[in-house]
Predict the structure of DNA-directed RNA polymerases I, II, and III subunit RPABC1.
Amino acid sequence: MADPDREASRVWRAWKTVHEMVQDRGYEISEEEFNIPLDEFRQRFCDSEGRPQRSSLAFKAYPSAQMQITHASLKPGAPPDCGPIWVEFNSDISVGIKQAKAFVFRVKEANMASGLLVCLNPPSSACMKAFAGVERELNIEIFLEEQLLVNITKHELVPKHILLSKEEKKRLLQRYRLKESQLPRIQKDDPVARYLGLKKGNVVKIVRKSETSGRYASYRLCMG
């Protein structure tokens, strides 16, 4: 069994990163909600033995006005391609179809459009099939705790990635007289693409530092 202090520190780091990730996607979350010291995290979310109670870490978030603009449809009157998200930490060593069904139920019960489940270990194939079966209704994402111990977007070697709105994407293609298929690509399972929750067809602007020009931008099309 893991040392309580080390486990609490590990979960605290993952909990902070997942909040930062949701915030960076454009959801309404204030830093006061998650930018807390480890001691306060222990007081709020750990039991008498100092072990984190993952079941108490669930939270939901709603799209900000800017996020709704970024995800706005090009079709007049159509709703934006985003909605509220439910985030939950699972404490089970194995995550199978039972946990998948329970998670989907809670996401639906809360009237969320998306669900993000943080697990200790990779879910079973049956679990992933269960999630795939509801992909037309819900957007389900899976992250492992170990993948969230560090916010990769804060690393000095990772350039800034900015999701373009559909209108910005349209103008980009028109400006350079390009077809979508002519853009360089970023895979959906790329770590930064996963962090931002990119979907097939999304375009990101990547801003890098340059010794000669200061900064320069490139663009990538997300592929599924």
